[in-house]
């Protein structure tokens, strides 16, 4: 059996920074070549970054990407890397498609280029555009209709791009074309437990396609998405051969024994199930046999560590890729701002994290002491700016009471944070959790201000679990747990009036989160939620709160998606909406 040394380049690309992404490809190819690799595969849309949304429809971006890909192929050869076969994602244009009705202007395609010998020897566009969940690719791309089979050192290698793998067609076509290996560049965003689904999917497609399968995914954050990597290789029986670490850049090098290609004439006009099969022979000479190296699949993170790492990665990359060097948040001593601060310290380092305590006349003593204890444990910088005097000035100017007066305090704090952001360049973090966002339990233009919201997709009950997990992880490593126990154990309160508790306005969080799981995550109607055994009055109350708060969510800052259904692109409901869930 011919051997092939394959590298999966699990990299963190930067949307729109084509030159830096091309440099990244060259650097990875150099390392791969030094290790004797013959075929290297990069993630989806490597050169442009992913997802590029409507940038895809701009002619200037399409042309820049195409030029970048051609220059990269030439540069790889110039730098002595032309023997390596590199599969690199880029933004292409459909050949021969003119602007027309129903066809996106410029006919952009989500494509990969196979580079060898200084040239692009094959191109393939994504066949099945990803158009559910947060994916919106039918808006941006024209689908492809061809599957390429490239012969590398006597092994037939077929290509599929991310969503193509989630459908039967392309892997069935790979089987029909007798490919020995299917390589799949991906931009598959993180969701809790998605890694299990991916491994099953890869194994199923490998068995069905009767070929080994190499899956390479991005890492890093991009706006509300976090990519966890999790690149892997399975053999033709679906058995796991190698798997990368999650959330870190890695060049995963794997040796494979693969069946030799049966002689086929290139370009013979083969078709399978509506797809054209295009063959390109790059090299027929098998690699001289060598002692294969063994790879051990990387350790998996446990469920809470995985979610926590996704939050850290999302924040770190948003800050870094947008040119910020520090963050600021209001620290109330409550668990939401405390967990947010712990994530920020892990993402950026304590010297980049600034907290402000803004006591009012209703603030408890522990709101200050718990914030101070957090600062002591983590090393972040804490300042105090009291708001009572400012509130008095407002009282002189306007007469408000009740919720209006409560919200005024939250808004005074927000003005202070934004002033400090403007003055010192810190990115302001909003500290709201998913349960609060769901029910509208935050003050618009108050605690809802900010540029990024690290825990907006984390339900309150999970906020507590993650906090306990983070402290326990520190203890296991012999470090100081960052989160004061009192922040975890005290009853949640907005402290906007004397003795206020969250449970004055909201059901207990355990009940609230269980109903939200049914209504938001699983999108059930009220009757179906009640049929699961929840109290009808409770369901009606929560559903009404959720429906009324859509306008507030739309104005909330972006934050990392960790669930199946984040408040963002995963859940698009109208703000102006007369539909009510009647019981
Ligand atoms: N459909 C719509 N489209 C656009 N705007 C709409 C709107 N409906 C109301 N509005 C506007 O929104 C305003 C109401 O929203 P808002 O001003 O936020 O005020 P509101 O939602 O009435 O009150 C905020 C609630 O959040 C609680 N809170 C505040 C701060 C922190 C926490 C916490 O524990 O974390 C909780 C607070 O105790 C209170 O119950 C209206 O006065 C109106 O201007
Ligand atoms: N005294 C305060 N000083 C500084 N920031 C505050 C203060 N009170 C509230 N905030 C800010 O407003 C946000 C919302 O306030 P709130 O007190 O409701 O939440 P929390 O204390 O973080 O969590 P919990 O709901 O568990 O109390 C906080 O996360 C914090 O960023
Ligand atoms: N980029 C893509 O096509 C991603 C779609 C795919 N279903 C995933 O989430 O992994």
Task: Please give a structural write-up.
Helices cover 38% and strands 18% of the residues. The protein is an alpha/beta fold. The strands form 4 sheets. It has an 8-stranded mixed sheet. Strands 5-4-3-2-1-14 form a 6-stranded mixed sheet, with helices on one face. A 4-stranded parallel sheet has the order 19-18-17-20, sandwiched between helices. Helix 1 (18-34) packs parallel to helix 2 (59-78), helix 7 (303-321) packs across helix 8 and helix 7 packs across helix 13 (460-476). The structure holds nicotinic acid adenine dinucleotide, adenosine-5'-triphosphate (ATP) and glutamine (GLN).
Give the topology, please.
Layout: E1 3-10, H1 18-34, E2 39-41, H2 59-78, E3 85-93, E4 108-116, E5 119-125, H3 137-140, E6 146-152, E7 155-159, H4 163-166, H5 168-176, E8 181-186, H6 194-209, E9 212-217, E10 219-222, E11 225-228, E12 232-234, E13 240-243, E14 250-257, E15 271-272, E16 275-281, H7 303-321, E17 327-330, H8 335-348, E18 353-357, H9 365-378, E19 381-384, H10 388-397, H11 402-424, E20 427-428, H12 434-439, H13 460-476, H14 485-489, H15 502-505, H16 509-521, H17 526-531, H18 536-548, H19 550-554
Parallel strand pairs: 1-2, 2-3, 6-16, 7-8, 8-9, 17-18, 17-20, 18-19
Antiparallel strand pairs: 1-14, 3-4, 4-5, 6-7, 9-12, 10-11, 12-13, 15-16
Nicotinic acid adenine dinucleotide (DND) binds at residues 403, 406-407, 410, 436, 440-444, 446-447, 494, 496, 502, 505, 551, 575.
EC number: 6.3.5.1
Pathway: Cofactor biosynthesis; NAD(+) biosynthesis; NAD(+) from deamido-NAD(+) (L-Gln route): step 1/1
Binding site for L-glutamine: 132, 188, 194
